[in-house]
Amino acid sequence: MKAQTIAIFLVGLACAALAAPSVDTSVLKVFQTKETANILISFKGANTAGVRRSTTTLNFTDRTQRIQYLYDNLKRHADETQGNVLGLLSNLQTAESAVVRQLWITNQVYIKNANRQLVEELLKREEISKIEEEKLSPMVKPVSIVEHPLGYKPTAGEQWGILAVDAPTVWASGYKGKGVVIANIDTGVRGTHEALKDGFRRLNGWYDAENEEEEPVDDYGHGTHTMGTMVGRTNGIGVAPEADWIACRACTDWCSDAQFILCGQWAVCPTDNKLKNPRCDLAPHAISNSWHLSNGEDDLYDDVLATWIAADIAPIFAVGNLGSSCSSVNSPGDSQLAVAVGATTSTNQLASFSSVGPTVSGKIKPDIAAPGNSVLSAYNSNDRSYTTMSGTSMATPHVVGLTALLYNINANLTVSDIRSVLTEGAKPGVLLGRTCGGTPDSEYPNNHYGHGIVSASASAERVNRMMKRQF
């Protein structure tokens, strides 16, 4: 009887889909084995690009006013586009069943645990353009992990990656990231770790899109490690040890595209851990993204990236760990909106695992390279645990930490400014004699190192020159 009911339901869905929204076949199939599905709803009237474009015609007194305008108008646009559907969902959902999240940043709605009756109702709504199943991708794991025993004492001084990007030279001028806020979207952060506890900005500083834990936690260690490289305050692990941090957890074993969007939205105008009380004045300056959705030019995250850029939040992404074959870069790092980071070794050579370009459309990626091999940082086992990891996930936070130093020098930098000073200040890597996309690695930019290996001192010098030209 149940099989017959499901069969009738699937036919009904297919017929309804012809009349109104398109429905992904995976949504139809999921009910053959499950009672509920996690779905992403898109709307015909969505015009987020138009809302963002309006910011270019207006003058804002400061960054906060710009972000507030973006939030207010994207949220209003979503409310107007989605109003009837949100009303329907409010009437249908119960405390035990569906969980609804409005994604104003992309003008979509995410529903966890939608049952078939709910999907049937949604298929009657003409304002909906598409209903898709949530897409899951495996968490990007480091190429190698070596956890050190409790009480492990690393060699005194700064870690090799900190020295390689020349952060101490910028520190000597008085810039260690003070007053700057960075974020990561990752597996979470062990907020009580000795290297991180003093840098956590508690006010609207944490959201868990996975399990809704109220305090920063990390069951896997990846997010704790990347955060340590950005802002860690012990054992010389952090590029910007005086910067503050916030975080959004999007991953456990698997990563959800909808939860990545939700975290990206949260970062623009951070809320409390219940998604209440948004504060656009608390937005971070840069976001570390050591994750990917797919292996080739997926535009699902472009709305988020474009909004970050409009809000002057630097979008820094790992390029991936698929090795040296041409066109192995991952999305969203392969987007022209993202600053994509490859990984290097302590000898300034591209790491063997670091993905290379070009993109599917022939664009050069990565944009930049940074230390990513055998990087020591904080870990999640306990409050004094450290581990050594390798991957472009480890390279990306070096660039975010460096970005924090640059914002410390000049808080009014735009994302375009950040991209320029990072790439113009980059140093050549070791010549490998490789060519991808018709560009040899002896020419810059290329599809191996991008514009080269980041240099904090060279980029800081360019920021200082920029400031002098403005006066």
Describe this structure as you would to a colleague.
The chain is α/β, with parallel strands linked by helices and 471 residues long. It folds into two domains: 2-134, no CATH class; 144-469, Rossmann fold, CATH 3.40.50.200. 32% of the residues lie in helices and 18% in strands. A seven-stranded parallel β-sheet has the order 9-10-8-12-13-14-15, with helices on both faces. A five-stranded mixed β-sheet has the order 1-5-2-4-3, with helices on both faces. Strand 9, helix 8 (222-231) and strand 10 (244-249) form a beta-alpha-beta unit. Helix 9 (257-268) runs parallel beside helix 10 and helix 12 crosses helix 13 (456-469).
Shape designation: globular
CATH architecture of the largest domain: 3-Layer(aba) Sandwich
Number of domains: 2
Q: How large is the radius of gyration? A: 22 Å
The overall strand count is 19
User: What is the topology, as strand order, of the major beta sheet?
Assistant: 9-10-8-12-13-14-15
User: Could you report the average pLDDT, rounded to the nearest whole number?
Assistant: 92
Cα separation of the termini: 78 Å
Report on the biggest sheet. 7 strands, parallel
How many H/I helical runs?
Answer: 13
The level of helicity is 25-40%
CATH class value of the largest domain: Alpha Beta
